[in-house]
Write a structure and sequence with these properties.
The chain is mainly alpha-helical. It is built from 16 helices and 2 strands. Strands 1-2 form a two-stranded antiparallel sheet.
Length: about 425
């Protein structure tokens, strides 16, 4: 029987029981929503600057497209470097502490961004402060993104893993969809410094709510070596990275892509991507347990590639917007579909680390997309970026097919030995 330890004062005071299937659907949903709300706040902060930061660096500070892209990608570099440690923190210290750490880093980021905006008369100083703000925001994203999923799974049980991941994604991209136009509106009416001020106030308001929310128990037992966890999760992470390149290209370059063609309403493309993404999670989120993660991932990645090709071939803003919407439709279920299959390959008490390793690969994709996409754009134009992203998505389809075949081979001996209890992939 698995033992548990209570590793913090918050946990000792009011631990959640490990959730079970007997809890009502509404209770489970409420528990999930009250946790992913912190993800929403963090990604709303990210979304505020997403559509306006490249223009601030490129137009206001006078730097080139590559530095404008790097300003966005710096966040994902920080997220990439912090993910493994954050996963171990969630396993050992608990997800509540992990989320609160992320909110504090979000406050630091907002402060630095505000200072960078106020120092715009000194371009290099302003750029340096912006880069530091993005580094802090990347750490915040890592802590809150991983911690909220682990916190949610601890509350409602691992039978609801796909549901927790799906709702966390709804919070993520719903916040990005709301944040991009809101950021444009704030910057237009109040200036870029107001983006920094709002980015500071949002997590500052959320922090007391996280402090009041009860913590979950921390599973104990001999933890799997990090190398073992990573080896099981890496193939799924590679598929996630290939599928995330398209999102990275849309998030980083869509405003410059529109500007290069003389089109307006670039933020609308981000909004369409996010709205369709969230809608698919609402409508089709439960197809993952029904059809299986591999099938959902392959279909989703193929649809994403179609959307990216549409952007690549777009000759007006309407077609580019439709392409962004199709890409959002496809990308919506990639993370939970592959993620469910990934976390099932590790023991329960190592799933925070598994989530950290798995999420790293999305950060890798986002980190390389900025400078690599800027390099491609400088030689071949912005349309070509989305063509390369479509090829990457199709590569992820082939990888998911290989992983599905490998999983079927591994499950076959167990199913033959005990037909009544087929292997699920859990240790």
């Amino acid at each position: 029987m698995r033992r548990f330890q209570l590793s913090s004062p918050e946990i000792r005071q009011a631990p959640y029981p490990m959730a079970d299937a007997s809890r009502s659907s509404s209770t489970v949903l409420l528990s999930i929503l009250s946790t992913v709300a912190f993800t929403f706040i963090t990604y709303l902060t990210i979304g505020l600057s997403l559509a306006v930061l490249p223009s601030f660096v490129h137009t206001r500070l006078g730097f080139g497209a590559m530095l404008a892209g790097l300003a966005i990608s710096t966040q994902y570099v920080a997220t990439l470097l912090s993910r493994p440690q954050v996963g171990r923190m969630a396993d050992a210290k608990g997800p509540k502490r992990t989320v609160m750490t992320g909110l504090n880093m979000c406050i630091v980021s907002g402060t630095l961004l505000l200072l960078g905006a106020l120092a715009s008369g000194l371009p290099w100083l302003s750029l340096g402060l912006v880069f530091l703000a993005r580094l802090a925001l990347g750490c915040a994203e890592s802590c809150v993104g991983t911690g909220a999923i682990a916190w949610g799974m601890g509350q409602v049980g691992h039978t609801h893993t796909a549901r927790v991941i799906s709702w966390n994604g709804v919070a993520t991209y719903g916040a990005l969809a709301a944040g991009a136009p809101l950021g444009v509106l704030i910057a237009h009416r109040c200036g870029f410094a107001a983006i920094g001020a709002v980015s500071l106030l949002l997590p500052l308001a959320a922090l007391p709510l996280a402090r009041l929310k009860r913590a979950t128990v921390v599973a104990t037992g001999e933890r799997s070596p990090f190398r073992t966890v990573a080896a099981r999760v890496v193939p799924y992470g590679i598929g996630l990275a290939l599928g995330s390149i398209g999102f990275g290209c849309i998030a980083t370059f869509i405003t410059l892509f529109y500007a290069a063609h003389g089109w307006d309403d670039a933020a609308l493309a981000l909004t369409l991507f996010g709205v369709v993404f969230v809608g698919v999670r609402f409508i089709f989120g439960r197809t993952i347990p029904w059809l299986g993660g591999y099938r959902v991932a392959m279909a989703s990645l193929a649809i994403e590639a179609i959307g990216l090709i549409a952007i690549c071939l777009a000759n007006d803003a309407r077609m580019a917007g439709v392409g962004a919407a199709i890409a959002g439709l496809g990308f919506s279920l990639v993370f939970p579909a592959l993620g469910v299959e990934a976390v099932h390959r590790v023991p329960e008490h190592s799933r925070g680390s598994a989530l950290g390793v798995y999420s790293v690969f999305m950060d890798v994709a986002m980190a390389v997309t900025g400078p690599l996409g800027g390099w491609i754009a400088s030689g071949m134009g912005y349309n070509a970026i989305y063509g390369f992203a479509a090829v990457a998505a199709m590569g992820a389809v082939l990888l998911a097919l290989v992983l599905q075949a490998q999983a079927a081979r591994e499950q076959a001996p167990a199913a033959a030995g005990n037909p009544a209890c087929p292997e699920t992939g859990d240790d």
